[in-house]
Batch of 2 targets.
Target 1
Amino acid sequence: MRIADIQDDIDHELVSKEQIEAKIKDIAARVSDDYRDKDPLVIAVLKGAVNTVVAFTQALSIPVQMDFMSLSSYGSGTESSGTITVRQDLSTDVRGRHILIAEDIVDSGRTLAWLVEELKRRGAASVEIFALLEKPARREVEVDVKYKGFEIPDEFVVGFGLDYDERYRNLDSIAVLKPSVYQGDEA
Ligand code: PRP
């Protein structure tokens, strides 16, 4: 789905399909160099990171193993809290593995801070992060993102995996939603 398909719902485009592709290609080249002899395990947190991890791993020039996790953070509304529970776990033993987490967005940082600690606790040899988007204004917890995509303002963004009410994940770029789309929910 493209912006033109949902024009009435979109205020403006923030990161184009071409910009996303170019950035992912760049980072994938760096990662391919950095991990050439490390047999890396790429981990994605469902569901938002799916688009990112697919595009990213396809752009790598080395074979990697992939695994997925489903986490839930309990909090009010769109705010995530510090309490994270595993809804669906990895099927891979991470002991001694070099792990690269591919994430769509770092918001408060709580999800990634928890995940990095959890993977280290399980015995990973190393844990690094690739995040396509970061919202610095929302950061609450320190997280070291080695491979950085785009910094974006604190606006309601959808697309390339990011949803509003489970929709718009299949938009091929990243865009700001019109307030009228979610206004009813905020009343
Ligand atoms: C989003 C996103 C990250 C997390 C980032 O997932 O995919 O995993 O929030 O937020 P944080 O930095 O404040 O922890 P979400 O919980 O919305 O679920 P989804 O991926 O299924 O959309």
Note: The beta strands are 10-15, 41-46, 65-73, 84-88, 98-106, 126-134, 147-151, 157-158, 174-177.
Target 2
Amino acid sequence: MERTLILLKPDAVQRGFSGEIIARFERKGLKILGMKLMQISPELAAKHYEAHQGKGFYDGLVSFMTSNPVVALALEGHKAISVCRKLMGATFGCDAEPGTIRGDFGISNGYNLVHGSDSPEAAARELELFFGAGEILEYGRIDDPWNAAE
Ligand code: DAT
Ligand code: MG
């Protein structure tokens, strides 16, 4: 089982797609362990996107991500990191395949609705940035056996 950090970015919340996007992760079989509406501080955005510091799009990315509330999700499931990246689609909405979140809900490059961790190391780091002790709940769901690896 893997865990991953998903963010519904300010455009997803502003455009009213939070529920539809969460539903896509849920129906795939990912379990919600943590979920909160929050405003990202400039300090948190800088830590989260430290790998992109110095790139041309960095300042715009940070101001976008801090402009309005986001929904942070801690999701768990079999191969959760790659499964979520596939559900998200390619980075730019104009390139993302129909059927993916970015492919179905957006056309912009930067306003691309969702963030998802891209490796186990990134997931562990990002989950710790966004969720404090006690904000990630471990519980059984009645459909757990149907979503197991075997
Ligand atoms: P991803 O979010 O698919 O992991 P990334 O980590 O390369 O993509 O970039 C982080 C975010 O930065 C991305 O979701 C949107 C924005 N971004 C990346 N490259 C960009 C560019 N060339 N122009 C505008 N925004 C960009
Ligand atoms: Mg990335």
Note: The chain has one domain: 2-88+116-139.
